[in-house]
Amino acid sequence: MIDLEVIHRIHKTLTDRKGAAPESSYVASLYAKGTDSICKKVAEEAAEVIMAAKDGDSLHVVREVTDLWFHSMILLAHLGLDVNDIAAEFRRREGISGIDEKNSRDQEAA
């Protein structure tokens, strides 16, 4: 089971960094660069997860997924969202077929 307390502590730290000087932390520097740079970093981390999975190294996969989650959390905080928004969406989707859920999103977009 995921230790949600650590996730919430990390989110608080990420939120606290939003107003910090860019030179004071890596996260603050990403916020200062804006959405495009944060998205680029999320994409980079996603690619690294894929490469680690193809290598078949479980520890490497765990480390890269951690990086991906971390950078995704930065993006969420940047956009004024947090892990509670993600948890709510997981709760909404729980018990719904993936096909049905995707079809409902396709109908909403139409």
Topology of helices and strands:
Layout: H1 4-17, H2 26-33, H3 35-55, H4 58-78, H5 83-93, H6 98-109
Helix pairs in contact: 1-4, 3-4
Please indicate the percent range of residues in DSSP E strands (runs of 2 or more): under 5%
Major sheet, described briefly?
none
Number of strands: 0
**Alpha carbon gyration radius:** 16 Å
Return the average pLDDT rounded to an integer. 91
CATH topology: Helix Hairpins
Distance between the termini: 37 Å
How would you portray this structure in words?
- By secondary structure, this protein is mainly alpha-helical.
- The protein has one domain (4-109): MazG-like (Helix Hairpins), CATH 1.10.287.
- It has helices at 4-17, 26-33, 35-55, 58-78, 83-93, 98-109.
Give short descriptive properties of this protein:
110 residues; mainly alpha; Helix Hairpins; 6 helices; globular
Brief synopsis:
The protein is an all-alpha fold. The chain has helices at residues 4-17, 26-33, 35-55, 58-78, 83-93, 98-109.
